[in-house]
Design a protein that fits this description.
By secondary structure, the protein is α+β, with helices and mostly antiparallel strands. Helices cover 18% and strands 26% of the residues. The chain has a 7-stranded mixed sheet with strand order 5-6-7-8-9-11-10, with helices on one face. It has a 6-stranded mixed sheet with strand order 4-3-2-12-13-14, with no helix packed on it.
Length: 451
């Protein structure tokens, strides 16, 4: 928690004034589509496909026709059952569809128009879900498709970060961070002259992860046209992949989706799980379905026959326990330990045990937010023996700093520090002493804060 948050929260952690008068003792202690229910937080479904090749007509049916048929099957998929090997349950409505390049065959204006007319942008056309497309090498044969994507990015559902040049973008679905890298992550063209210009996508990725993810530990999904199968590796250099690995190695990247090779492959690369998604429009008509929860990632192939194909499942973590993912002042690990939601800032102000102290206050004080008998308070106030001091006891917790303050009246109080503990090394009974109390009366209050 930053110092300003500590200071603000500490103002709410003042024990009710302790009043001392001679012979008296202490007195007081103190984004869904219209018409569709919003998905549950942390339950994220999305579809992934690529290689639509709008405009390719040398087979029957054409790529345009196969793409439309695949699109229609995406619309009909929610409500169907997952295969048992993927954990069962029903497919939810997709938050969106990631399209991983080669939207068109030659990057022409007519092909781009046909694509946008079918797929739309926000679920307003033939597809019922928002679209998040990137360009592939076929799209990059000209500038129409890359520039068309750039023009659409500012209106795309939920997008929160766009590269300075306008081509690359990222957004969050609940705790999940998603980044579109277009053809591949790089700052210069790859080894194949027909591979397309990455337009500084790696530079964008490095800055985006640092600013939008940081040390939160939350999961990241990346998608790009060229993958890590033998075909994909021919299009970008080993040096570019080394730089890419350096950029993501310290982040919780749970999946990298790619297209290009027109087949479904699950490839492990340098410890990362990568997935080739088949082809929406070029012969096959298949795509991937991804389901992310707080504990699992499931990826399943959906075939042109409306059956399930290859499947993948793994456990994931969704936060760094020492980070504060929702910015509410409480570390995510502490929230999870005590049954709070690490991604809901509203629980900081709530009082889970009804003891009059908020959950955030209990975190700062080191008390149990689920136990009303464990709260920040003075346990005793007394005259020092031998005098003339006043002693105040508190049940102190490790890693906290306790301060005793005094005022002579409460009408217009002026509080002054009379004792401080420094950082308490372990749970203990702590006594703070006012060594020079006034002779008639005084009011005392306790503060607790993190160092």
């Amino acid at each position: 928690m930053v110092d300003s948050q500590i200071a603000e929260a500490a103002r709410h952690l003042l024990l009710a004034a302790l009043c001392w008068a001679a012979g008296v003792g202490w007195a007081g202690a103190a984004d869904s589509l219209a018409g569709r229910a919003a998905p549950a937080f942390g339950d994220i479904t999305f579809f992934i496909g690529s290689d639509l090749h709008y405009g390719y007509t040398l087979h029957t049916p054409t790529c345009d026709e196969i793409s439309r048929a695949t699109l229609d099957r995406m619309n009909l998929l929610p409500g169907n059952s997952y295969p048992a090997v993927a954990g069962g349950g029903l497919v939810d409505a997709a938050r969106g569809v990631l399209l991983v390049g080669d939207l068109t065959d030659l990057g022409s204006s007519s092909q781009w128009s046909a694509f946008t007319n079918d797929w739309g942008l926000k679920g307003e056309r033939r597809l019922s879900f928002p679209v998040y497309e990137g360009y592939g090498n076929h799209d990059a044969l000209g500038t129409i498709v890359p520039n068309g994507i750039k023009a659409r990015n500012t209106s795309r559902t939920g997008v929160s970060n766009i590269s300075a040049n306008g081509y690359h973008y990222s957004w969050d679905w609940d705790f999940l961070h998603v980044v579109c890298l277009n053809v591949f992550p790089g700052n210069e063209p790859g080894q194949n002259p027909l591979g397309g210009d990455p337009r500084n996508s790696l530079q964008f990725l490095v800055a985006d992860l640092a600013q939008r993810v940081g040390n939160s530990g939350r999961p990241v999904v990346l998608y790009q046209h060229f993958g890590f199968d033998s075909e994909g590796l021919n299009w970008w250099t080993a040096q570019q992949r080394t730089k890419f690995y350096a950029a993501i190695s310290n982040y919780n990247v749970i999946a990298i989706f790619a297209g290009h090779n027109h087949t479904v492959n699950f490839v492990k690369w340098n410890g990362f799980d990568t997935f080739n998604d088949g082809t929406i429009g070029h012969f096959t008509g298949n795509f991937l379905v991804a389901h992310v929860t707080r504990t699992n990632l499931v990826v399943v192939e959906r075939t042109a026959a409306s059956t399930w194909g290859s499947s993948f499942k793994k456990n994931i973590s969704v936060f760094n326990p020492n980070a504060d993912n929702d910015g509410d002042g409480m570390p995510s690990g502490w929230e999870s330990q005590h049954g709070f939601d690490p991604f809901d800032p509203a629980d900081a102000r709530q009082d889970a045990d009804g003891d009059g102290q908020s959950n955030l206050a209990e975190y700062i004080a080191g008390t149990d937010p689920r136990n009303a008998n464990d709260r920040f308070r003075a346990t005793q106030i007394r005259r020092a023996v031998p005098g003339p001091g006043i002693e105040v006891d508190v049940a102190a917790h490790a890693g906290r700093v306790y301060t005793l303050e005094r005022a002579v009246d409460l009408t217009h109080p002026s509080w002054s520090v009379v004792a401080t503990s420094g950082v308490v090394p372990g749970d203990r009974n702590l006594t703070l002493v006012d060594t020079s109390p006034p002779s008639d009366r005084a009011f005392y209050r306790l503060r607790v804060q993190l160092p």
